[in-house]
Predict the structure of ABC transporter permease.
Amino acid sequence: MSLDIVVPVILTVISAATPLLLAGIGELVAERAGVLNLGIEGMMLVGAVAAFAVAHVTGNYMLAILVAAMAGALLALIFGVLTLTLVSNQVATGLALTLFGIGLSALAGAGFVGSPIAPLPKLEIPGLSELPFIGPILFHQDVLVYLSVALTLGVIWFLKRTRAGMILRACGDSDVSAHSIGYDVIRIRYLAVLFGGVTSGLAGAYLSLAYTPMWVENMTAGRGWIALGLVVFSSWRPLRLLGGAYLFGGVTILQLYVQGMGGIGVPAQVLSMLPYIATIVVLTIISAGPWRGRLDAPACLGKPFRPAT
């Protein structure tokens, strides 16, 4: 395979992996704090429509990204109030948040359907962007691609090297113990949930500004659920999440290239199912095979916490 083909393939894999990585890293932080938020899909959609609407009206992409992050955080705040303050069921509330996000994004984006915009500009690094092969791959990406990797590296450092990261992990592993020594478990979980909302909003912004620069209802196409699966696939470890996002991004692009080749006798609908089939197969193998004991799920994940008075 020539470099003329390899470079575009790698670039499309990066494009497919970036929204998964952005959404997954936020959910990983929330789950390490003990909160299971199944509303990623809804937060991504709201972030996508918010970013597209702002970019379409103002032409300011940085403002669009900021508004998308705020929109995701707002939905995450609603989830936090319901589950952390009112102690509602996290699974049911997360599912309701997804349905709410789907409906809200469809309503808000009704006037923008079929209105394309220019894609999010790529960053030019003089002297590096023009390098053969590695130039377009490493030094000619948009700001959200670099931000996704930077956030992942930042979360690795935060969870492993900082006192605040240790406290957050303690809240996910033993909320009662963390509370008993004076840590505000609810406040810490709020911050983790809000971080997950921000990154989900950014993931949605990437879809509507860079991946397919237009607004289409349900344009996430299940990526929020894949991001949830990636958190389990990574055993709640950020570096594994990074590798998993690019692996599943590669699977997503693979089915597109196979469809484009034609003549293989497999219906296009079956090929479109490949990323989701891969997610199910990997999660089944992990949970049922010899790797089961390595999952290391936070002990308090999804469990309600009521501070003792």
User: Anything to note?
Assistant: Residues 3-32 form the longest helix (30 residues). The chain has a mean pLDDT of 89.
